[in-house]
Amino acid sequence: MNLFRLAGDMTHLVSVVVLLLKIHTIKSCAGVSLKTQELYALVFAARYLDLFVHFVSLYNTVMKLVFLASSFTIVWYMRRHKIVRRTYDKEHDTFRHHFIVLPCLVLGLLLNEKFTFREVMWAFSIYLEAVAILPQLVLLQRTRNIDNLTAQYVFFLGAYRVLYIFNWIYRYFTEPHFVHWISWIAGIVQTLLYGDFFYYYILSWKNNVKLELPA
Amino acid sequence: VMVDIDHDEL
Fold this sequence. Notes:
The structure holds two protein chains of two kinds. Chain A is an all-alpha fold. Chain A has helices at 3-25, 34-47, 58-80, 98-110, 117-131, 134-142, 148-174, 181-193, 195-206. Chain A is 69% helix and 0% strand. The N and C termini of chain B lie far apart (23 Å). At the A-B interface, α1 and α3 of A face loops of B. Chain A: InterPro entries: ER_ret_rcpt.
C-alpha cells in the first residue's frame, strides 16, 4: 500500500469521524443529506459483499467493517434518533436519489470486469459512489448557514477522492498489471463533482469567512 | 490489458 492510498483512506475515515462527531455530540444533522448517506450505505453494502469470502488483509477487513457500520449508524441516527431526526432539513434535501440507483445498476450489468454477481455489484457500487455526493452538494447550495463540521465533512470526503487518483497514478507506474478502467473513470467523474465545492471552500478559508455556495 | 480482478481497495 502506498502513501497516497493510506492518506486517502485516512481522510475518508476522518470525514466519517467528523460527521459522527457532529451527529453524536451536537445531536444535530443540520445540513447533512440523508439521501447521500443512504446511497453510501448501499454503496458499501454492495461493494463489501465479499467481506467474508475474499480476504485481502486485516486492514481491509477492519476498514470495510468501519465504513459499513458507520454508514448504517449515520442513517439510523438521521431516521430514528429522536433528537437528531428533528434537525434533519428534509424540505431542502429533495434530490430524487432513488432514480440514480437503477441507472447505476444497469450500468453495472453492462460495464463490469466480469459478469458474475459479485463483480456486477462491485461495478454498481463504483458507479453509485461516483454520484452519491450529489444530494449533499445540492443541499449545501440550499443551506444558508453551512456549519464548519458539515463543510469539513465534505472537504475530507473530496480529499479522499483526490488522493485515490494519485494512488492510481502511482500504482499504474509501479504495478504493471494494475488497470481498473471502471474505478478510474468513475473516480475521476466523482472527483470532478467536488471541483466547485473545493473552489468555494478554499476561498472561504483564505478569506476567513463562512462557506456559502452560490445557487 | 491484464485486469487485476482482486479488488484490494476500499
